[in-house]
Amino acid sequence: SQVLRIFGLRESQIAERLAELDKKYPTVGFGYFPHFPENHLSLTVQSSTATSADTILEEVVQAVVQKLGLYVYGRGDERLEMVVGRSLMDNGCTLALAESCTGGLVAHLITNVPGSSAYFDRSMVAYSDAAKTSHLLVSPDLIAQHGAVSSHVAEAMVQGLKRASEANLALAITGLAGPTGGTVEKPVGTVFLALLSNKGLRTERFQFGGERQRIKLAAAYTALDWLRRATIDESFFDGG
User: Fold this and answer.
1) DSSP secondary structure string, 78-127?
2) Checking DSSP bridges between strand 95-99 and strand 120-125, what pairing results, if any?
3) Residue 86: pLDDT above 60?
4) Which residues, in sequence order, are CB contacts of 207 under 8 Å at separation 6+?
5) pLDDT of 87 above 70
6) Is 71 in contact with 7 (CB distance < 8 Å)?
7) Which of 19, 43, 68, 88 fits a 20 to 30 Å CA distance from 199?
8) Within 13 Å, how many C-alpha atoms sit on residue 124's CB side?
């Protein structure tokens, strides 16, 4: 058996994309297990010998990866922050973070990995508007015009962070974790991410659901996934 870890697709979307494989390999058990904010796919093979079972299993794993692409981030016990750390290390990248709504959660996840000091430079929890203006040099007029939760402020945060750090990847998060503070235009769960490197700048708006802790966790995992994709996908900064 093998467990594949998937981020960015709902369980129903995974099952739909793998429906043909499920029919093609009737001797393989496909098990879908939600593990918020990601999903786990368990593949189980029964065969007459261990060798043949291993061969079939690897064939199915490769077929699943081909179907799901970069949504598959790891196998077995690999956590997303471990995969991100290894990718940063392999690509010679260093990281700086500016977090608002996640309150340092991304930094916490990154530093859960032993040896993360090799690629993690710094993190700033700029929670208040005053912290954003004084430490990240975000213009008060920009906040007044667009609001602290906006693509404009996310970009200004990441640009201010990049000026203060020599890290070659800088990521900023700002959002509304709730339960109060939402509006019709920006409901609770609205989060903006901005990632800046020498390859470009990408900013995107997300809408997460659930209570406060789930929104923070979903935002943090999305940030980690951005870091993973930015180091392995040449077209990453063309999206958004």
Assistant:
1) --HHHHHHHHHHHTT--EEEEESTTTTHHHHHHTTSTTGGGTEEEEEE--
2) parallel
3) yes
4) 187, 189, 190, 191
5) yes
6) yes
7) 68
8) 22
> Mean per-residue pLDDT for 147-155?
98
Given a cut of 70, is residue 191 above it in pLDDT? Answer: yes
Q: Please name the residue ranges forming H helices in the chain.
A: 11-17, 19-24, 50-68, 80-90, 105-110, 129-135, 140-146, 151-164, 212-232
41 pLDDT above the threshold of 70: yes
CA distance 14 to 11: 5
Two tokens, residue 216? 């923070």
Tokens of 22: 């499920």
Joined together, the tokens standing for residue 28 give 């393989």
Helix (H, G, I), strand (E, B) or coil at 233: coil
Straight-line distance from the first to the last Cα atom of the chain, in angstroms, rounded to the nearest whole number: 36
Return the pLDDT at 240. 56
What's the pTM value of the predicted model, to 2 decimals?
0.96
